[in-house]
Amino acid sequence: MTKPPIRFDPAVRTALDTGAPVVALESTIITHGMPWPDNLAMLERVETAVRDHGATPATIAVIDGTIRIGLSATDAETLAKASGTLKLSRADLAFACAEGLTGGTTVAATMMAAHGAGIAVFATGGIGGVHQGAETSFDISADLDELARTPVTVVSAGAKAILDIPKTLEALETRGVPVIAVGQDEMPAFWSRGSGLDAPLRLDDADAIARFVAMRTELADYRHGGILVANPVPADAEIPHAEMAVFIAQAQAEAAEQGISGKQVTPWLLARIVEITGGRSLLTNIALVESNARLGAEIAVALARR
Ligand code: PSU
Ligand code: MN
Fold first, then answer.
1. Is 1 within the bounds of a domain?
2. Above 80 in pLDDT, residue 2?
3. Ligand 1 pocket member 92 (CB < 6 A)
4. Which atom in ligand 1 lies closest to the alpha carbon of residue 104?
5. Count: domains in the chain
6. Domain of 248?
7. What phi, psi does 120 have (nearest 5°)?
8. Complex ipTM more than 0.90, yes or no
9. Is residue 267 part of a domain?
10. CA nearest 212: which of 203, 220, 221?
């Protein structure tokens, strides 16, 4: 028998063994979502936010074929600087391990690894979803099916506004995934606090979210999957929906012209939008991930107290 190639950072191992709060973080956002060195600065800010709110951060990635639950500062820097790293989703995780490869884990793959490690709360920027034009391209992120099957609470700023948000909400409803807007009735749209769409559910703070998560654990025989928490970007960092729509439309038209497809779509659009906005969307992206990390830590702390 092959031993599963999983390695825990010592601080994460101790926290898990003692029932202390832990928040998982993904790494595709590091390898494919943001440019060097902003990606490393983002990770440091996000990990600090988790610690400042009483939890231990566990950044998940695959390095040389080993699933890493928590990264040292050196590992994080190596991953953030590396070029040619893979984008690893559910379909690729075991492949990367078998072949000894290095890559960032998407929301889907991070949920799998977090659940396997016994981590119930995970903070990210925005999940993948149903892409615009999916009726012809069939481009629907594996993140949605993962939310349906894996019991991890994912704290996001909603679905990235480059997606078809109404279709993404429909797909989540079909899969039985609760989508909870925090502190407002409207579904947030990543860079923007509003989307013009009602969120399916609303809760107003970390305690209420923890109560809901605990109830689903209580009803374990019902085999629930995950929960999507949609936390609006802080007001001082937001780019309003109407303004964002123009930048997104431009990036999408260019992507279509250049035939960008498959796994490349999300990273390409995100990078192009950073260029089009002269870096403003990157600042918004960093602010929202940090805010989600804070809320994730509060939820993990509330769960540990129950
Ligand atoms: N959110 C961000 N930046 C990112 C992503 C999310 O702020 O780079 C990544 C996540 O890892 C998510 C992935 O799981 O994009 C979705 O990619 P796709 O649409 O190809 O499934
Ligand atoms: Mn896709």
1. no
2. no
3. no
4. 11
5. 1
6. 6-305
7. -100, -15
8. yes
9. yes
10. 203
